[in-house]
Amino acid sequence: MSAGRSASAAAQWGARLLLGLLWLLHLLPLGVQAAIGRGLGRSLYALAGSRRRVALRNIALCQPQLDDAARERLAREHFQWLARSLLERGLLWYASHARLRRLIHVEGEVDWAERHPDTPVMWLVPHFVALDVAGVATQLFQRRQVGSIYQAQSNPVFDAAMRRGRLRFGLGQVFSRGERALPLIRAVRQGCVFFNLPDMDFGARDAGFVPFFGVPAATLLAPARMARSLRMVVQPVVAELLPGGQGYRVRFLAPWTDFPGDDDLAAARRMNAWIEHEVLQQPAQYLWVHRRFKTRPPGEAPLY
């Protein structure tokens, strides 16, 4: 067996062991899982040097009013929430529907899309660590089909498990990020609600440099363009991990009545300003480990 095949086989066995651990952990009370996750997060902060540096840099850029000690406290707290979210994927993938319905507390108009079956709808869901909880809530508490864009995992065992976990409720569809947009657009026209994650840096293509906490950030213009072309109603959704064994909160906010308008950059600014507001409500749970400012305007120096 070649070295490459041996490494691949080892990685797949490692993924199976990890998935087995997640399955075992999901049997524990949520409060116990939360305590284990927070302990793991304290270790990850010490060990994951590159991601720790990214998080600290992002916090310094977005929260300049904080001193060094406060930024470090926020980053440490973030890693504990992040580790919880990773371990509790097992709960989302394997727990019974009844248990999840008890743990996930939905607020607002979760059934707005269901009550307007002929209206194309986009759920705008920023990258808080409880993002996957929002995905589960959209399939447990309403009955319209849900579509999202999916980033394939390099490990085929983990990729298959993630797809199974996200599709097991029977209402989901996933579309590869590498595909053309046509299958997603066709699904929306057939009544599928688009679960859209708008706040990642995918490069300058189809993006505009729009302030995020005052820092120019490559921000996708596709949400505005898609909403306009398909006459979609945009409804913001925010998910949150609650302390200990209290579960999760998913807020379905009132649909926006003034989005996107006719200016893509103005729509992107509106979107980023709303995300900023939500980040300030739960700053430790925003995904600070993502290199949000990786792409820079022409001539500007890298920030990482």
Instruction: Give the class from helix and strand content and strand pairing.
Output: alpha/beta
Low-confidence stretches: none
Strand content: 15-25%
Cα Rg: 19 Å
Side by side, the strands of the main sheet go 1-9-8-2-5-3-4
Count of individual beta strands: 9
Largest sheet: 7 strands, mixed
SSE topology string: HHHHHHEHEHEHEHEEEHEEH
Could you estimate the helical fraction of the residues in percent? 40-55%
The span between the termini is 39 Å
- Please state the average pLDDT score: 94
**How many domains make up the coordinates?**
1
Number of H/I helices: 12
Task: Give a verbal description of the structure.
By secondary structure, the protein is of the alpha/beta class. The chain has one domain (3-285). The protein contains twelve helices and nine strands. The strands form two sheets. It has a seven-stranded mixed beta sheet, with helices on both faces. The chain has a two-stranded antiparallel ribbon with strand order 6-7. Helix 9 (156-167) links the parallel strand 3 and strand 4. The mean pLDDT is 94.
